[in-house]
Description:
Blueprint: E1 5-9, H1 14-30, E2 35-41, H2 46-52, E3 57-60, H3 71-94, E4 98-101, H4 107-116, E5 121-125, H5 132-137, E6 143-146, E7 160-162, H6 179-186, E8 194-198, H7 205-213, H8 215-219, E9 224-228, H9 234-238, E10 248-251, H10 257-263, E11 266-269, H11 273-282, E12 286-288, H12 298-307, E13 313-314, H13 320-332, H14 335-347, H15 353-366
Parallel strand pairs: 1-2, 1-4, 2-3, 4-5, 5-6, 6-7, 8-9, 8-11, 9-10, 11-12, 12-13
Amino acid sequence: MKLTKIIISGGGTGGHIFPALAIADEIKRRNAAADILFIGAEGKMEMDKVPQAGYPIVGLPIVGLQRKLTLKNALLPFKLVLSLAKVYFVIRRFKPELVIGVGGYASGPTLQMAQLLGIPTLLQEQNSYPGKTNQLLAKKAKAICVAYPGMEKYFPATKINLTGNPVRANLIPALSGLTSEAATHFGLASDKPTLFVMGGSLGAKTLNVAMKAALDHFKTNSFQLLWQCGKSYEQELANFQDALPENVKVFPFIQRMDLAYALSTVIVSRAGALSVSELALVGKPAILVPSPNVAEDHQTKNARALVDRSAALLVADLQAQQELLSTALHLLQDPAQQAALSAELKAMALPNATKDIVDVCEKVAQK
Length: 367
């Protein structure tokens, strides 16, 4: 059954927005006439990103619970009631056959109201440890698409579908033939072991501090460093750009991630859900440094899901300045460990995630 009228709700971060847009695009690919409406949170990035991708979006006044005492927490119950009321009228007017939640502030009231109105709902959980909202919504959801095995600890086993997370389509083809192009593109050698450090589009302070302190080590060995420092650190980078060794290339943002992955021998990354899914698809040995600044420490749990299967190494954020460089250099010099990590990581890859998620959506709508 092709989907015709769907609401997709969630956002707040790229980790929620990208899967939502990938799901919408796949629905549209199967049925160009499908009517898709997004519901997000006012002031969050989905209010810009979703219209840029060509889809309409409705914003809710919902906000998250702050960790410290603040007036925002006092206003939360009122904003929740307002959001539920707004969603009620949106659903009654739009009449969706299915409501999909991808996580983020807006997905809670949207799916809660849909369930109260008897509209089928589906959850797409990106992380290995779901938030409390999704655990509550799962009780009445018709299906739950997950990216990690063992999610029966949190969700009803009969509703779980192991689909994986949608990732960038251009990463799916083999990267082995891009090494020479990648070396030319970044101004590095094609035949030297390469450490690729990525801290996301905005950057990760811990990774940047650790790499800046390690620059002298790259002057005295045969390894090279490809470092995405993030747009937030672009000005700071300019202050020491001239002092960089020839075998170190730093960029605020890397558009051609396929080339960066192709050139890399070892990858250092945060452990966001989509980053982990991409790393599994790429299959390069990885060192994960989970961000401590996320809800319920879910990045550490994502990393642990790989480490427990010997598919990655983990360096705690607090230990990164002391341990990250030595861990990376040791791994760069150990081809046997690289091969072992790579094999286990590739075994966890789920490259057909977007297709499989929409397959489940269609089955739920048909029932």
